[in-house]
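Input/output pair, single chain:
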Amino acid sequence: MTDDTCSNVSSPRWFHRARLLEAAPTAMQLWEMAIRFTLNLLIITILVGLVGGVVKTFIDLRLLLSADLEVALRHIIVDTLTILAVVEVLKTTLKGGEPLWSANCAELSCCSLRSSFS
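Output:
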């Protein structure tokens, strides 16, 4: 073989084609990208809903001046508790289902060690 045939095999054009095929995403990578995109849209939707709830709560503060005090306080308390409930559900979901009141690290590691040894 001469040097000319070796240079044809290792030409930049062949190398570029191989790099493109190597960089093409597989079906599993496309699936993961689609799932991540969908989850990002859901998270954005939930965050927009939370911001909307906070804005609605602040707008309902004007009821303290215009409506009966009992009705105004009821609206504000219900709005606030609804937002807090949604935040707690999100925190529990993102934390992996652990109860929020057992946030002590020593207790959590102790419980995980007990469950792994039994």
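The chain has one domain: 11-97. Residues 113-118 have pLDDT under 50 and may be disordered.
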